[in-house]
Structures
1.
Amino acid sequence: MNPLLRYALLVTCALAALFVLAREVIFHTRIVAPSPPAPANFTVPPVVSESTLLVTTKISLPALAKLADTKIPSPIEGSKPDPTDLLYDDNFDYSVQRGHVSIAGKQGHLELTMPIEGGHATLSGRFGAHGVFKVLSVPVSGTIKPIRGHLDAVMAPMLHEDWTIDPNAKLSVHLQTCNFQVKHVGTVSVCNLLTKEFEKHKDKYIKQLNAFLADTNVMRHRVSDFWRQAFISRRLSQEQPLWLVIKPTAVFVAPLRAEGNYLNVAFGMKARTELYFQESSPENTSTDLPSLGIVANPSPTLDLTVPVGIDYGSAGQALSKELSKHSIDVGGSRVRVDDLQLRSAGNRLLVQVRLTASEGWFRRTTVSASFFARPNLDRNAGVLSLTDIDFDLTTRNYLLRAAKWFLDPILLQQLQKAARLDLRDFEERSLEKARSEIRKAKANLPNKVDAAVDLDHITLSDVRVTPSQLYVVAEAHGAVSVVLDEIPVHE
C-alpha cells in the first residue's frame, strides 16, 4: 500500500475513534438512580381450586339376603284384633313358615322374594246382633292351612344424612289360597290381612336394620377411612418450596342403584386443592366425616393446579430481548431498552432497567433505574405482561431532577405494551407435569382403592411472585373417579 495512503487511513481511524470517545465522554450522560429498599417479608397467597371426586363402591346382594335370613324370624307369627268391620269380637291369628330370602337387582331397584312354605291363618269372631242381643249372634271362623305362596318387595333404598337407610319398600303377598269363605259373611281376603301385618313387620325390621347399621356402620366406616386418607400434603419439589394440599370439604350420595348381584353406591366428594409456596408443610388436619348431602347425579370434575417455575434471570432476558425490538419516541428522543432484569419485591416484581435516550447524532443519556410492576397473565392469549408500574418515592424524586423523561407516561405505557412474554409452550409442560403427579398419586393409593383420571385440557390460570422464582400456575381440567373395594356385609 502507498505509504501516504496508509498514513491517511491511520489518521482517519484515529480521528473516528477520538470522535466516538469524545461523544461518549462529552455528549453521553450516565445516570444511576438509587435502588428502592428491600421489601418486607411477604407471604405468597396459595392458589385454590375445587374438584369433585366420584367415589363408587358396591354391596353384594346375595350377602345382603343372607343377612336378612339371620334377621327375619321363622315362623313369622302375630295376632291382629278387630281386623274387619264385618265381624265383632274378631281376631286374626297367623303363623307363617318362610323359606330363604333372595334379593336381586333389576332396573335399578331391589327385588326381594321370600317364599311362604307353610303355616296357617285363622279369622274368628261373631256375626249378628250386638249388646243385649249378643245371644242371637253366631260365632264364625275360617282357616287356611297350610299357607303356600310368596312375599315380594320392590325397594328403592336411599341413604339419609345421618347414614340411616330407608328401603322405600312396597310389599305384596301372593298365596295359592287367598280368601276365606266365612258363612253368613262372605269372602275375606287373607292376602290383604297378611300384607298389612307384614307392613308392620317391615317397619320393625327396618328399625332393626338401621340399629345394625348404627352399630356396625360398615358403609360409613369405609367412606370415613377414604375421607381421612384424602387429606393429603405433598411437597412437589425438593429444590423448590412447593406444597400441594388437598382438603375434603363435603360428601354426598346419589340414589342407590341395584343391578344383577350388586347394590351400587355412588358418592361425590368435594375437595379443596391448595398450592402453597413455602418451605414448611402447611397445616392440614383431617376432620370428621360430615353429614351426607343428597344429589340426583354426582358429576366428577378435576381442577388440578400445576406450577411451572421461571427463574428471574431467564424471564428478564426474554423480556429484554422482546423490548430490544422496539424503540420509543419520547419528546423527540428515541429511547431503547439496553437491559432488563427481574427480581421479587413482595407480591410485585422489581424491574431493573437500563434505557438509553438518543437526541440527534451526538447527545445520548443512559439511565439505570428500578420500578415496581405486577405480572399479569392473559389467560386467553397465554401471554405474561407487566402492569401497574410504580416508583419508589426516592427513585421518583431523583428521576424528576436528573431524567424527567424516564417518568413520561407515554414511555411507561409503551414499555408496558412491549414487555410481553409468550407462555403458550408452558401449557404442554404443565400437562406433562400434571400427568406425572397423577401417576405418583395413583402409585401411593391404599390397597383396595383404584382411580381413573382423565385430563381433557389445560389452561394457564394465574401467576405468583416468590422470592426464588416466578411461577406460572396452570389448571389441568378433567374428571377423576375412585373405586373402593366391595363393602362387606356380615353380622
Note: Residues 58-218 form one domain.
2.
Amino acid sequence: MIVNYNKFSENFSNFNSCRFFLIYGPNYGKAELLVQKITNYLQEKENFGRRILVTNEIISKNKNFLREKFYSEDLFASKRIIYCSLENLEILSSLFDFEKVKDKKETVLIIKAPELDKRNYVRKIFEKTKQFCSIPCYEDTEYETKQLIKGYLEKEKIDLNEDILTFVSRTLVGDRNSLKNELKKIVLFYKIEKKATLEQIKKILSSQALLKIDDFVYEIFSGKKDFSEKMHDNLVKTGISNIQILNAISRHLLMLLSFKENLLVLKCHEEAINKLKPPVFFKNKDKFKNQAKVWSKQRLCRTIEKIYLFERKIKSEPNNSELQIKFMIFSLAKTSRTLVRLFRPPF
C-alpha cells in the first residue's frame, strides 16, 4: 500500500504490523531519516537484533547473500532487520517471490531505492500488497526547506535575515542530506566571523549550486521533462544563468560520447565509465549508462554540433538569448523523453 511520508513518519506505530518497507525517491536525506526511524523503533520497542546491510556491490560478489540472510534461521532466534540500500532493484525479482514471503514476521525487510518508474516490478508489488508499505520520498518544498533551516539554525543560536534565509532555502531546496551538509558550513562560518553577508553566503554555497546543475542535466537526459522544468526554475531563482546550464549540458554530451568511444575499445561498461574524467558519481552511474543506451553516437555528435552553432549564434545575436536557451534546453528534454519511450533493449 502507498503511504504518505509525513503520515508514516509521524505515526509509525500505526504501521508496525508491516514487515516489508519500500522507501524510494530523489530525496535521499528524507529516505535515510525514515530508515533510521524504523530501525530505532524496531530495536527499542520490539527487541529486533542488528541490522544487516545489503547493497548491489555485495550482491554482485555473492548472489545468494540476500537469500541466505533472509531465509536462514538465526542461531540465537533473534528477529532481524535486513536493509537493502540499492541503486538497481531488478535483482530482487529473481531473489524473492514476494507473495510467498509477505506473511513472514521474524524478519523485517527495508528497501531504499532512488526514484522508481510506476511500471517498476518491486514498486507495483509494494503498492498493491496490503502487508507492504511503499513510501515515496519526494523533494522538500521551499517552505519545508525554510522551516528545516530555521529549526537547525535556532539550535545553533544563529539568526539569518530574510534575504539570506530565502536565498539559502532556494539554493538548498530538495534533498535533506545536502541541506544538512551545507548548513554545517554556514554554522562554521558564523561561529568564526559572527556575521555574514548575502555575497559571502553565495560563495559558501557555490559548490552546491554546481551539484544542482549536474542533477538537473541528469534529469534532462533521463527524459523527465516535467521534473526538469521544476528544477530549472529553482536553479534560476538561485542566480544560475541559462548559459551555465547550457555549458553543463554540452559537457555531459561530450562525456556520453567519450563513454561510447571508450566502450568500443575496452568492451566493458564499468571500465569505460571509470576511465571518464571528471568521474561519474556512483549515484549517477546507472542513469549515465541508461542515457548512453538511448543516445546513439550519431545523435550525440549532431546535438553537440547543434549546441556549438547555437552558442556562436547567441554570442553574435544576444537578443532574447535567455528565452532561446531555455527553449533549447527543453527541446533536449523532449528528445530524451521520446528516446527513452522508444528504446528497446538490449544495448
Note: The two ends are 34 Å apart (CA to CA).
